[in-house]
Design brief:
Blueprint: H1 2-26, H2 30-39, H3 43-65, H4 70-82, H5 84-97, H6 102-107, H7 109-112
């Protein structure tokens, strides 16, 4: 579990740094670029569409893990729009809260203990 947590911290640091550099150099208006590639039906668009499906799965999982409560749905929306910059800290927090119990980390405490 410790190696997984280190991985999550490294991911956030690297992705956060990369995101800052790209945003500062190219601006923060990602959505038109992102969706124009999808509409163009090219390989970058295919990747973006595939990535969008991963983001939707991530958001649904976070909302499901929190039993589709109001806060859980809000966290799911954040997971969809923020991707790994949200999911890595969320998983880090969940792993610490679950005290390394993978079942509790993935299912949530109430489902893991049922």
């Amino acid at each position: 579990m410790q190696a997984f947590r280190v991985y999550l911290v490294v991911v956030v640091a690297c992705l956060g740094t990369y995101t800052m550099i790209v945003g500062l150099n190219h601006g923060w208006n990602l959505l038109p670029v992102f969706f124009s590639d999808i509409v163009a039906m090219n390989w970058p668009g295919q990747f973006n569409f595939d990535f969008t499906m991963f983001l939707s799965l991530s958001g649904l999982w976070v909302a499901w893990r929190n039993r589709f409560s109001g806060p859980g749905i809000a966290l799911g929306v954040v997971a969809f729009f923020c991707g790994m910059l949200f999911l890595a800290p969320y998983l880090l927090y969940a792993s610490i809260r679950a005290e390394g119990d993978v079942k509790a980390m993935l299912l949530g405490e109430s489902r893991a203990n049922a």
